[in-house]
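PROTEIN DESIGN WORKSHEET
SECTION A - STRUCTURE
LENGTH: 226
C-ALPHA CELLS:
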C-alpha cells in the first residue's frame, strides 16, 4: 500500500474541476440521444451481474477540507474493490481507510481514536435499471453507512459513518463483452457526510466545496489496465 499527501491551491482548483467534470459527464450520460430503454428480466440481470462480478484493483483518492480554507489530497494505491453477482448485488470497498477522518474531526478524543482505527471493508448495494436495445445498461450503487466501534473516553462507542452520493452510469455492452465492464467509468465517488452515535449527530460534513466547511470526499479510481 502506498500513501501520499499533497496540498496546493493549484491542486485544489484542479480537483474542483475534476469533480464538476464528473458531474457534467453524469448529466450528459443521462440526457444524451434519447435511447430506447426497457426493463430487465431476472435472467438478464443475472447474466449482466455475472459479467461484472470480480475483483478490481485501484487507488483511493481522498480529498478533505479542514474548515479553515486548507484542502489536502491523500492517495492510497494497491486498494481493492469487489463486485458480487446478483445474490448479494453489492459493491464491496476493501480496507477503506477510516483513520483519515481523524484530520477533519473536531472532537479530540474521537479524532485520536479514529487515527488508530483499522481499515474496514464496507458494502454498497447496486442495481440494474434500464436496458437499451444495443445491450448497454444503466447501473448504479448507493453507499449508505459504515458501522464502526471505537473505544475512547473510557467506553465503547458504536458509530455510523453516514455516506452520500449515489453513482449511476451506463455500462456499455461492448466493454462488458471485452471483460472490462467499467472501462468507460473507472471512478466511483462518495462522501462521508456525518458521524452518528445512535440518533445523535456527532459531526456533520458539508457535501459541496466550501472553504469554511469541513469536507471528506472519496474517489475509488480503478487501475487503467482494467
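SECTION B - SEQUENCE
RESIDUE ASSIGNMENT:
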Amino acid at each position: 500500500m502506498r500513501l501520499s499527501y499533497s496540498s496546493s491551491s493549484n491542486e485544489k482548483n484542479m480537483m474542483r474541476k475534476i469533480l464538476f467534470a464528473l458531474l457534467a459527464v453524469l448529466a450528459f450520460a443521462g440526457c444524451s440521444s434519447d435511447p430506447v430503454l426497457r426493463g430487465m428480466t431476472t435472467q438478464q440481470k443475472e447474466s449482466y451481474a455475472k459479467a461484472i462480478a470480480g475483483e478490481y484493483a485501484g487507488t483511493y483518492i481522498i480529498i478533505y477540507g479542514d474548515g479553515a480554507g486548507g484542502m489536502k489530497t491523500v492517495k492510497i494505491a494497491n486498494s481493492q474493490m469487489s463486485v458480487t453477482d446478483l445474490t448479494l448485488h453489492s459493491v464491496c470497498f476493501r480496507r477503506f481507510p477510516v483513520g483519515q477522518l481523524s484530520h477533519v474531526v473536531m472532537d479530540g478524543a474521537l479524532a485520536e481514536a479514529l487515527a488508530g482505527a483499522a481499515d474496514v471493508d464496507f458494502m454498497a448495494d447496486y442495481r440494474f435499471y434500464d436496458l437499451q436495445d444495443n445491450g448497454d445498461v444503466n447501473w448504479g450503487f448507493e453507499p449508505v453507512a459504515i458501522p464502526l466501534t471505537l473505544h475512547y473516553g473510557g467506553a465503547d462507542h458504536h458509530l455510523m459513518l453516514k455516506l452520500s452520493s449515489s453513482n449511476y452510469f451506463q455500462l456499455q455492452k461492448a466493454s462488458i463483452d471485452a471483460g472490462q465492464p467499467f472501462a468507460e467509468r473507472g471512478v466511483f465517488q462518495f462522501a462521508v457526510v456525518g458521524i452518528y452515535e445512535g440518533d445523535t449527530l456527532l459531526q456533520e460534513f458539508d457535501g459541496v466545496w466550501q472553504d469554511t466547511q469541513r469536507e471528506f470526499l472519496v474517489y475509488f479510481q480503478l487501475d487503467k489496465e482494467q
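SECTION C - NOTES
Helices lie at 9-31, 42-52, 108-115, 173-177.
The chain has four helices and 13 strands.
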